[in-house]
Amino acid sequence: MIRKASLLLVGALMGATAVTTLSQVPFHISAAANAAASDTYRQLNLFGDVFERVRSDYVETPDDAQLVENAINGMLSSLDPHSSYMSPKSFRDMQVQTRGEFGGLGIEVTMEEGLVKVVTPIDDTPAAKAGVLGGDFITQIDGEQVQGLTLNEAVEKMRGPVNTDIKITVRREGVAEPIDITITRDIIKIRSVRWREEGDVGYIRITQFNEQTFDGLSQAISEMSKDIGNDKLKGYILDLRNNPGGLLDQAIAVSDAFLDRGEIVSTRGRNADETQRYNARAGDLTDGKPVIILVNGGSASASEIVSGALQDHRRATILGTRSFGKGSVQTIIPLGANGAIRLTTARYYTPSGTSIQAKGIVPDIEALQVLPDELKGRAETTGEAGLRGHLQAEGEDKEASGSQAYVPADAKDDVQLKLALDLLRGVQVNNAFPPSGDDKAVMKN
Where is the composition biased (Basic and acidic residues) (predicted)? Predict the structure, then answer.
């Protein structure tokens, strides 16, 4: 069976696929296992009884297929916030989205308090241009209440033909009245990598990890190295702020671009023989130039893999605020004509053996943004540890929820970016830059 591993923050508008092949493993059924199976079948009989009672006695004739789909989704969503059922259409949409082009509004969303919460609007999309902000709660879609809908149902309602309008009503903290926002649907073409020259520093922003990300990064490094001149280039700023994640293989490739050797990430499931390790290959695309990575409370999943790998290997200095803390791997399991399920199957670990689930990556240099008055007191993300039913951190590790996730629209107001530029140019000095110590992460078992 081919299964696909996903490292996405939420399963609403984007998918994530890194193909792995799992083999059949022989097993022995004990008497205890037989007893457990018997109990399980009794519970399944209970489900059948309830199902038949609903079909026969509910006030209106229910849709049998919808009943079963909702039951499956309820079972999966009760496990953690990232496990879910995908209908055949949702599965097809996910496969399209990982290619970096799809139809929609251009927002990353999750479910909180029974409402759809905007994690972040994607750069240069209809939602971003219409004024949707991270932290907005969507209460109505075209006049219909969101309360009572599943996340997939709400997302499905927001999708539609290109060039058609949709009106969403949002509740925004600090604003007394609900806000109506009309958005024209469009093809969302995700250019996941953008770059520019900041004088003698190369600035690279990755908004998500899709199939185009590594190629975009390679082009950015090549062009800026040539244009600035390798002898004048002070280093690179890799901006992963508010990057919700994406493809595992792309996170590995981006990390590998800055490393010559060593482990990048490992994934560990319930069974010891399911552990997989991913290592860097020789060849640093930047020729060892200094690197500063910007992260914040909206940096999740694949972003945390890159940050954790380069931090553990002392290859980059992490600057900003603590990341989101999504350290779990979702496997996309196709169900033939019946869609697929997204199931949490493993945790991922940084090269030093650290799981960041519900804790996040702690920056080497913490730097807070100066908030505008209207955002003071409400510019933090919930964080993985703040999601209801999240997968617990391992052992006695302290869980941390919430971190500043604001990025000013104007670079001149960006405190974190200014500090990174000053460090690379030697205008400011900090003990954490450049990172000191052995450049090879110490392995922990």
Answer: 391-400
Last residue of a domain, one of 189, 218, 241: 189
- What does 20-46 look like in DSSP terms, one character per residue? EE---------HHHHHHHHHHHHHHHH
CA distance 161 to 184: 10
Q: What is the DSSP string of 153-190?
A: HHHHHH--STT-EEEEEEE-TT-SS-EEEEEE-EEEE-
Does 212 lie in the same domain as 142?
A: no
What CA–CA distances, in Å, run from 246 to 4, 207, 217, 289? 12, 10, 15, 26
Do residue 251 and residue 151 come from a single domain? no
Per the structure, the complete domain to which residue 199 belongs is given by: 193-328+346-425
Give the residue numbers annotated as catalytic, written as ranges: 301, 312, 326
On whether residue 312 sits in a domain, the answer given is yes
> Per residue in 360-410, pLDDT tens?
999 999 999 998 887 777 657 778 888 878 888 876 567 776 789 999 989
Give the span between the Cα atoms of 354 and 444, in whole angstroms: 8
Contact 323, 295 (CB under 8 A): yes
Rounded CA-CA distance 248/347 in Å is 13
C-alpha distances (whole Å) from 203 to each of 138, 180, 235, 318, 420 are 33, 36, 9, 15, 10
**According to DSSP H, which parts of 384-444 are helical?**
415-425
The verdict on 133 and 261 lying in the same domain is: no
263 & 387 share domain: yes
In a domain, 114, yes or no: yes
Are residues 221 and 358 both part of a single domain?
Answer: yes
Asked which of 20-34, 46-60, 68-82, 209-223 is least confident by mean pLDDT, the reply is 20-34
Structure tokens at 87: 């209908």
Which of 289, 267, 288, 287 shows the shortest CA–CA distance to 278? 267
| Residues 185 and 223 both lie in one domain | no
Q: Which residues have CB under 8 Å from 288's CB, separation 6+?
A: none
**261/181 same-domain check:** no
User: 423: closest CA among 286, 214, 243, 235?
Assistant: 235
Residues 386 and 415 in one domain: yes
Question: Across the chain, how many H-helices and E-strands are there?
Answer: 9, 22
Sequence length of the chain is 445
